[in-house]
Design brief:
Blueprint lengths: L12 H25 L4 H19 L4 H14 L5 H7 L2 H19 L2 H10 L6 H18 L2 H19 L4 H14 L8 H10 L3 H7 L1 H18 L1 H16 L12 H16 L1 H8 L5 H17 L4 H8 L2 H19 L2 H13 L3 H13 L1
Helix pairs in contact: 1-2, 2-3, 2-18, 3-18, 4-18, 5-14, 5-16, 6-8, 7-8, 7-9, 8-9, 9-12, 14-16, 15-16
């Protein structure tokens, strides 16, 4: 994982004030609707309002989202809408520790040249064409997202896209979008793809093997459909890329520089980490350990080995490769989300859906999936 940019485009004080006014108005409207139209009590109204305000802040005030989450949590605590014990229960600290460990491991992989090795392996493929480049980059994006996480995947795949497009003098945007979409699809294949996978796995008692059986095949089918659609949608750009590639290869010119990379140590690190995560359920059963204990601790063990192995970089991994800004936001968001359960808002939603739909699972499942997508 890598640092996400927190630098927004410069915004005047007037424009910022207008945005905050819109957010305040939206908050008031939400409060009125859920309280009077839906009939929620005061605590339920506050919990829904704070949760939705944080979501809106994420959409429209990207650099302020953590600050707003910091303000929202005290509002919940001081209005007795949420208790500290409930927050500690729902903030999913185990998921945060898992992500910290994986971020350190990814930092080690980057230092060991593992991602550079993957990029060079793609660039060395014989008989490269525009369509083949799109296929390889999309599949690599999806599989790397499943193995590490979607942020790391798109970062090193975008480096590949920029390098190839710069050499061939073509627009990188279409190929970046292809990799972004493939990465998003691939991240659903395992519980390593994004924090939501870890959270769902821990809450539902699902193992890595469960994801491989139930989610990974669906991910592959979705990936095939996504790639097929993108090949048609960007056919003109792919045709241009193909022509430029042919010109370059006809003159026996490489797509990029090649350097010797000691990738084997990085390969050993990632295989060992994923192996521990993949076998966590069997290890827990064999040793009689608590459910998911090996799952959460495996990245921390791997991270500890990385920091001992490359002790000169240990502090750097913790200070620069761990994305504390994002992790703190997730911590707050998970805790605030728990308020919806604590105040029984989720129960109200479930009851309303049952009264509206009944026991028709064929209708309920698509509606729940649609709500999750939104």
């Amino acid at each position: 994982m890598a640092h996400e940019s927190e630098t927004d485009a410069p915004m005047s004080g007037g424009a910022l004030a207008i945005r905050f006014a819109i957010l305040a108005a939206a908050s008031a409207l939400i409060s009125g609707l859920v309280h009077f139209a839906w009939g929620l009590n005061n605590q339920q109204t506050i919990s829904v309002t704070i949760f939705l305000v944080i979501i809106l802040a994420t959409l429209f005030f990207w650099s302020f989202r953590l600050a707003i989450a910091f303000i929202g949590l005290p509002v919940l605590i001081l209005t007795k809408t949420l208790e500290l014990d409930c927050f500690r229960e729902h903030c999913s600290l185990e998921v945060i520790l898992f992500l910290i460990g994986m971020m350190v491991v990814v930092g080690g992989l980057r230092d060991l040249g593992f991602f550079t090795w993957i990029i060079q392996a793609i660039l060395k493929i014989k008989g490269m064409t525009g369509r083949r480049f799109v296929l390889v980059s999309a599949v690599a994006s999806a599989l790397s997202a499943s193995a590490v996480d979607e942020v790391t995947s798109i970062l090193f795949m975008s480096a590949l896209i920029f390098q190839v497009c710069d050499v061939l003098k073509v627009r990188p945007v279409p190929f970046l979008i292809i990799c972004v979409m493939a990465t998003n699809v691939g991240s659903a294949g395992t519980m390593l793809g994004n924090p939501v996978g870890i959270l769902i796995g821990s809450r539902a008692g699902l193992t890595f093997e469960d994801f491989m059986v139930w989610a990974f095949p669906v991910m592959l089918l979705s990936l095939v459909a996504t790639i097929a659609l993108l090949l048609v949608w960007y056919r003109e750009e792919i045709r241009e890329l193909d022509a430029r590639l042919k010109q370059r290869l006809d003159h026996a010119l490489p797509l990029g520089p090649t350097v010797a990379v000691p990738f084997r140590r990085g390969l050993l690190l990632i295989v060992g980490t994923i192996g521990l995560v993949a076998l966590h359920h069997r290890i827990e059963v064999f040793l009689g350990l608590e459910t998911n204990s090996v799952l959460y601790m495996a990245p921390l063990v791997a991270a500890g080995i990385v920091m001992i192995w490359r002790r000169g970089r240990a502090r750097h991994y913790i200070e620069h490769d761990v994305e504390w800004w994002t992790l703190l936001f997730f911590l707050m968001l998970f805790g605030v989300s728990g308020t919806l359960q604590y105040t029984e808002v989720t129960t109200e939603i479930a009851s309303s859906m049952k009264n509206l739909i009944g026991d028709e699972l064929d209708v309920m499942i698509p509606i729940v999936m649609t709500m999750a997508c939104l």
